[in-house]
Amino acid sequence: MPHLILASGSPWRRQLLDRLGIPYAWESPDIDETPRPGEAPEALVHRLALTKAERLADRFPAHLIVGSDQVALFEGEILGKPGDAATARANLARFSGQRVRFLTGLALLDTGHGRHRVCHERYDVVFRQLSEDEIARYVEREQPLDSAGSFRMEGLGIALFERLEGDDPNTLIGLPLIRLCKMLREAGLDPLGDRASPE
Asked: Which residues of this protein are annotated with the site description Important for substrate specificity (predicted)?
């Protein structure tokens, strides 16, 4: 059994983690992602990322478990997954010509030592001016109904943007690899190491 577990069913997060070349297993945790009343966006993504990792802790008692969650912020509103095409189109119409901020929470739970690290990364997207037809065609083609922000950066979503601003573009897809590599090294699993087990 690999010592690294990804607490996510997202194929996009798995593709990102694959890039590190570390053997891992994955499982999708079932959690309630509803924000709590008055919960700050940063606190929300921290809580959800850690909750995803903790949901698998009993099944993987001597592992490093990675949890991640993302929200979009626009005009003071927290936006999760649109869920349906009409909401996705409405979101993209609001975003046209505007800046949208994404917060991605990242947690690394060390079940063998009973400790964890949690952080978040910020990434901004500036949308170009989008026509109704462009928005409709995009939503029809990619069906981004399960993606915060109503687009998929790893697909045709790139055609919606004027520019991207942030430290790690992987953050926008949902797994900040630069920060994750740092957290893994601190936990004793170096992506550039000899694949020794975490201490």
From this structure: 12, 70, 154
Residue with tokens 């005009």: 75
Contact 50, 118 (CB under 8 A): yes
Which residues does the annotation mark as catalytic? 69
* Under 8 Å between Cβ of 3 and 189: yes
Angle at 138 between CA 94 and CA 122, to 5 degrees: 55
How far, in whole angstroms, is CA 146 from its chain's centroid?
Answer: 12
Q: Answer whether 0.85 is exceeded by the pTM.
A: yes
For domain 4-187, say whether CATH 3.90.950.10 is its number: yes
136: how many CB neighbours lie within 10 A of its CB?
15
CB 139 within 8 A of CB 92: yes
Alpha carbon distance 32, 52 (integer Å): 10
**Distances, alpha carbon 152 to alpha carbons 39, 111, 113, 147, 158, in Å:** 26, 32, 36, 7, 8
- Upper half-sphere CA count for residue 27 (Cβ side, 13 Å): 17
Structure tokens that stand for 8 in this block: 């996510």
Express as a percent the part of the chain with pLDDT over 70: 96
pLDDT tens digit string along 73-83?
A: 999 899 888 99
> Which 3 state secondary structure label does DSSP give 70?
strand
